[in-house]
Amino acid sequence: MRALSPTLLAAQRRLGALPTVRVRVQDRELRWAALIDDNTSVNLTAACPAAGGIVRGRVAGGCLDVQRIVAPNEPQGWLAWQPLAADAAPGADVALSSLSGDPARLRLFYVRTRDGALAVACFQSEDGGASWSGPFECVGGLAAPAALASANAQLLFHDPGDGLLKLALADAWQAGGWAVHPWLAGSALASRHGLAAGHEGATYYVASCDEEAPDVRRLRTGTFDADLGIWTDPVAVVPPGLPTAGFVPRYPALARSGGLWYLSYLEAFTGATTWAWPVVIHSADWAHWSYACRVPLEGWDGAQRPALLHHGGAFYLALERAVWQAPAYNAADPAKCLEVDGVAGYLAEEAPWSGRTVVELYNPCGRYDRPCAPLLPLAEVVVERGYRTAAGEERVARAPSYIVGVAVRRGGSRPTLHLECEDGWGLLARWQPDALYLWQGRTVGWLIAEVLYRATGLACVTDGLSAWETVLDGLAMAPGGWPEALSDARRAWLSREMRAAGGEAAGTTGLAVLRTLLAKVGGAARWQADGSLYCFIPSAQPTVGTYTIGAGGEVLDALYGRGLVWPTEVRVFGEGAAAVAAASADSPRRYVATCVDAHLQSPISCARRAAGLAHEGRAQRYGGWVETPCQPGLELHDLVGIDDERAGELAGECLRVVGIAEQYDPAGGALTTRATFQGA
Hints:
Number of helices: 6
CATH architecture of the largest domain: 6 Propeller
Distance between the termini: 15 Å
Mean pLDDT: 92
Strand content: over 45%
Low-confidence stretches: none
Radius of gyration: 29 Å
Shape: globular
Number of domains: 3
CATH topology of the largest domain: Neuraminidase
CATH class of the largest domain: Mainly Beta
Largest sheet: 14 strands, mixed
Structural class: mainly beta
């Protein structure tokens, strides 16, 4: 139960209180549109935001070129290049970044050839790319042109001589030496299909498209602590398991904005069919990465890097001669955030694994006849509802839902715009992995956060109990119809690099896998007002201090009943461990639920699973629903009591809310809540 002010709490217990409703629509999606739609790009480029604009570099033939864009919204600024050097290795990579905290200081890295020898050299700028000095040699003796990246005006490169990825840090801005730090844990690889680098604080963030084995290519990440001189182990991100045969991630790029890391890469595939298109993913903590945001384009040349950057309130994804732009979220931008008081009604329904909301907005003079931003699919919709009290209009926000359909109604008493929305469960149900995903040695809490963020981009929190620290040896999820037969090379890599992930895949959708993980610890979950998922253990909840419905005589309608307790006995068998639990001692029949789960490897983990199943059985003892004026503080899975003389034996019992239906009908002045409950 969410905390309410005394005046709002009194209003929800009083029949005839005046409701107030407002709807807020926020579009946080990256919606890309072409700024320059040209399919004639030839050369690799690099880009970064700088003081006074955007700076880009390229190697065209044997020349290093640069451009400074002071007005990124004007297409012509992206097409004018100025020569900087004529000693570049033809077709070689290029990298560019500014010094952290000083966007006027830039370094532009390229592979220089002189007398048949290859070296990485750089030019420097101290005025945001308006003028340059150099070149200065950074790393010499390359065996072949190297993949390059840069962050904090430092150099990340793949050394073709020994196959290692290395970070070169300058001792000083002017006339200093370069200290090279090899990433030994990243392994010596003959082929890397592109690098990306980022920097924050004392940490360098690295992304590398690695060919780890024949037909096994993944995008992996890692970090380097410059203070301690320590690299982390590589973590496979795309995908976190066995990639589809023929999949090749290429040319990653990193950008930092609004507390998130944004990582773009080129998703290429060769096989029965071919494609190559850029996608963008994001992360709030560098550990969990989101769903892919696809950039809509045709005729993509798979040999090009989509350079990603954020500047002036927008993201840019740039090729040599093509640029796409996506506005960043800004609450002050009416195309990104809209607040509407003219609500013609809404119906919101919540259940343990599903939720939908239908909102009707008044459409005077055809204002919404052509719905536009932010009234677009996947935009976030928040319904704020409450009552007019002595303190003013007091409203409480519901958990967000997300638009899946927009329609205009021209009939009825008034023209309206209909928003069909679903909550995070719907987003989870729609998402499927694009390869065989495998995780090893991770806790249940970590895996829930991982699957949730990959499917929805939403965060999760727990009740802090030790059950969430249960470690699973392995977990797998696969797309529907994943082929059982693998090539010999891929099968050998899988058996060598991955331990068994507990037998069959845990599911084919985000929702199926999340439910599997929650069940392993007897857990449940609900969505919170900030959009996060709150995970908890129902059987461990205290049943004291619950909120009482009906204490003010506000019950409008109700159904009170009893049900069959099922199961009455639970038996859980894990790997070398087992547990039993009883759900009822007064049932005339015994109903046994048997669970076999090889992931459970201790008596404690088996006992948790048994307690959860037994708790579900006991909850069936009571059931029904109660309808009242809207209860803005009520949330799914809240523990409540009923104060109603007609409640019979349910009076005084602790009950759990397992369904909520809210309906607003301004024509009738009604704002009601129907709460479905069962035993707690």
